[in-house]
Design brief:
Blueprint: E1 3-14, E2 19-24, E3 33-38, E4 40-42, E5 53-63, E6 73-82, E7 84-89, E8 99-104, E9 108-116, E10 122-131, E11 138-143, E12 154-159, E13 163-170, E14 173-181, E15 189-192, E16 199-203, E17 209-213, E18 223-225, E19 232-237, E20 244-249, E21 253-258, E22 267-270, E23 277-280, E24 287-291, E25 297-301, H1 303-306, E26 315-319, E27 326-331, H2 353-356, E28 361-365, E29 370-374, H3 396-399, E30 409-417, E31 422-432, H4 434-441
Antiparallel strand pairs: 1-31, 2-3, 3-5, 4-5, 5-6, 7-8, 8-9, 9-10, 11-12, 12-13, 13-14, 15-16, 16-17, 17-18, 19-20, 20-21, 21-22, 23-24, 24-25, 25-26, 27-30, 28-29, 30-31
Length: 442
Amino acid sequence: MAWKSRTRSLQVFDTELSADTVEWCPLSPRHDVLACGTYQLQRGSGEDDGTPSRTGRLYLFEFRREGSMSPPLTELQRMDTAAILDLKWCHVPVSGKAVLGMAAATGELQLYTLSDSQEGGRSLQTLCSLEVGAERLALSLDWSTGRMDSSDVRVVCSDSAGCVSVLSLAEGALTALSQWKAHDFEAWISAFSYWDTQLVYSGGDDCKLKGWDLRVGPSSPTFISKRHSMGVCSIHSNPHREHILATGSYDEQVLLWDGRNMRQPLSESPMGGGVWRLKWHPTHQHLLLAACMHNDFHILHCQQAVEGSGGACPLVASYILHNSLAYGADWSRLSLEEPAPCSPAAAEPKENLTESGRHLRIQYESPTASFDTSLEDDAGRYIPEGIAPPSTGSTVGRALDPDSDAPSLSCLLASCSFYDHMLHVWRWDWAPDEAQLETEQC
């Protein structure tokens, strides 16, 4: 069965400062809340002032579907902060409230609570903060709550000194539990195993991926992988499949791993750009979102790789409307029930692009930038320049498990890019190709 994939921009927002992280709130009924963080390096203006300063801004938005004539994204709040390197919502409420964690260029881990006013508005309020070290940048954070376990809420944080810190959150305060030197250079990323939160992973600019067991202490890692050839900058534990881990690197590869065997990855997928962030879909276990720096945003279907078939994961969608480094990306849990609008007839390709081996490019003008995008080919594939088409030996349609994957899927996503300081909200629709279904049924 062939599947038709389509991405469609819903709104573009100028963040004014360089945008590098976006996060949808995972808690109901706040799935419509979106946070975006920015990072701006300010060079010294005078000859004697050579010390750069790093500033940032934290945005809070609400997504509303009030009608096609009004933009769906409403800005609720903006706060000037230190430069922001990473944002993550806790997956469970803390004292009844959603909590947002922020890794700051001051070396602090800062926490905010999402509060509802009597007038119905929402805003972020400072909860607490803790400095993980002096003269360093906090680079990433992850919560231990990826499988909605609220019994022991902890945070892992990595920093520019190559250290990893584990902290606990209790009674509205952060407490440092442990800190150790994990990497020779910047520790770009740290993450929990959501299935065993005593296991922590870290990746650094020393090209190493490491595992740590908190029960035995950080004196030595449980493994060291040098499979990535450049700095490791993204790690995400699959919350649906035990032992499955995704990692990304400046070497432009996405590797899938079985945590029981870290000597050899399950699959290796070339992405055409450094993989800064990876996000598993919150409910569909085989879908992986990748932010690929110089090569846009892509969605991979990982079922065959996870089940041991090997080979690169096929791309099922790409979003290529950003004009700068692709850094932040996230899935929303908000339901999009109504189907996407049909493409205008004038935008349909006039030739069989599959046979011609290329795709049609059209130009969209906007007040802030000039976008170009690629239309789908006749089989529904949506492949940007610079990315090789996935193997056609076994199609993604045949790989779908009808018991675990919906017959069609509509997702709301957000992404941001750096130098053009842009936040995009977009939707992805994935459904069987009805035209081919009719042919097969005849």
